[in-house]
Design brief:
ten-stranded mixed sheet; two-stranded antiparallel ribbon; D-Maltodextrin-Binding Protein, domain 2; alpha/beta; globular
Length: 259
């Protein structure tokens, strides 16, 4: 670890992607990187690039950095660490609506406007959106770009704002986005994790999240694993501070974090 710690942690991240990261380093991933770098006796440097379609090619692939935070633990073509948190897609609604929606199969959804994030590619719909479409609710969906425009601040927040402003009745979003922006809402919101859909068991709604490095960088991967285990309590505190809905990690990963 000492040899690796002699050089800065070179991180690639989106400069406008709260709650994960921004150029001011206010995101929870910025805080986790800072924690890891400090424990390693070094510091982090950033290469900023919008997290769009060519992100990994232009970052890790081009050699301008050595790690990327918040990648799925099953992501191919990368060496990934063990997961350091697991979250879920969630429903968001106004508390004063008293909707109490608990699942994709809730019959209330057929009468409601459902806000969803869209990626701009019909074949890349998010898992709960695909499930809603399969349940015959395509006409109920109202799409909000998760990317927005390059000059727009916090574009994913538009979906949560639409719930606040009653432009939609309920929204479906990835847990970290929903948890963070709901905490900053002007009205009380309810965030409920979406359980798996029995009608579409191949569509996962929960994902374990890890750090990604190049496949050849196994020494860095192992060093980061050691750091994630040692710093697990502090990382969990950061996640709670940002309102991230955390699900239970798979047993093997959870045991390694506790040892």
């Amino acid at each position: 670890m000492a040899a690796l710690a002699a050089t800065p942690l070179r991180v690639c991240a989106d400069p406008n992607n709260l709650p994960y990261s921004n150029r001011q380093q206010q995101g929870f991933e910025n805080k986790i990187v800072e924690l890891i770098a400090r424990d390693m006796g070094t510091h982090a440097t950033y290469y900023w690039y919008p997290q769009r379609g060519s992100f990994f090619k232009q970052t890790l692939g081009s050699g301008v950095c050595d790690l990327v935070m918040s990648v799925p633990s099953t992501m191919p073509s990368l060496a990934v660490t063990q997961p350091y948190y697991r979250s879920s897609y969630v429903f968001i609604s106004r508390r004063d609506r008293n909707l109490h929606i608990q699942s994709i199969e809730d019959p209330q959804l057929r009468k409601l406007k459902i806000g969803v994030h869209v990626l701009g590619d019909e074949d890349a719909s998010l898992p709960p959106v695909r499930a809603l479409i399969r349940h015959g609710l395509v006409r109920n969906l109202v799409g909000f770009s998760i990317f927005g425009t390059l000059d727009e601040t916090n574009p994913p927040a538009d979906l949560i704002k639409a719930v606040e402003d009653r432009k939609v009745d309920v929204a479906v979003a990835w847990g970290p986005l929903a948890g963070y922006f709901s905490r900053h809402s002007s009205v009380p919101l309810v965030v409920v994790p979406i359980p798996d859909d029995p009608a579409n068991p191949e569509l996962p709604f929960q994902f374990s999240i890890a750090i990604g490095v190049r496949e050849k960088d196994r020494a860095l991967q192992q060093t980061l694993n050691t750091e994630l285990i040692r710093l697990h309590p502090e990382i969990q505190r950061i996640l709670r501070t940002y309102g991230i809905p955390a699900m239970t990690l798979p047993s093997e990963a959870a045991r390694s974090m506790e040892n």
